[in-house]
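Let us work through a complete example step by step.
Step 1: write down the sequence.
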Amino acid sequence: MSRDKVVADAADAVADVERGASLAVGGFGLCGIPSVLIHALLERGAGDLRVVSNNCGVDDWGLGLLLREGLISRMTSSYVGENKEFARQYLQGELEVELVPQGTLAERLRAGGSGIPAFYTPAGAGTMIAEGGLAWRHGTDGSVAVASPPKESRTFGGREHILEEGITTDFALVRAAVGDRHGNLRFDSSARNFNPQAAMAGRITVAEVEELVEPGELAPDDVHLPGIFVQRVVLVGSADPRAEKRVERRTVRPAHEGNR
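Step 2: predict the structure and record it as tokens.
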């Protein structure tokens, strides 16, 4: 059987993502997001998606595009970010949201991909994360329609820890700077963020890559994620407008006279 995991295009790569599927999506804000695959999902139109990602992009880019079209029914994230539509849908009861401490979210994805069903962490102990009652879904009148359940706790070394479950998903979508035909991936700088963990959590992981090389061209020390975790690879061109690398929030300062 061929080990070549390259597929023709993004549409083919997500053609079997059906309504109600769960997805782990890499990226942090707009950094390292699989924007071409997200656009392919948008064109496919499969709804009721249950997405696990650090956040949900912005109103007009990234996962925010799927949210705007009503294709996401549940988000597991660490923060809302710059997405006003995300906040609106959550507060008006249109979207279920599980907010998870950022480090815990990363570890839940890694644990799921490593076959670890659950782990204890001190993060969230003594808060509503542990006690339950956080609003996962609001009612149309602003009440809590679905609340988070309490978590099991134990004491280790005199400190309370809570039990968090590993996360696995039907699919994972990630973006890498370089990939080879066997699915080995290298991420660029901070775009490494949540991409390796998301890739590990998916039963079927699809990677969009900016550069495709032949097996053996990536040095072993340059492989950030081995191909065992990747089932499909899609080459995206820099000229493709869907592959644009946007800046979520740009902060500048006036140039000094002497530096002009």
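Step 3: interpret the result. The chain has seven helices and 13 strands.
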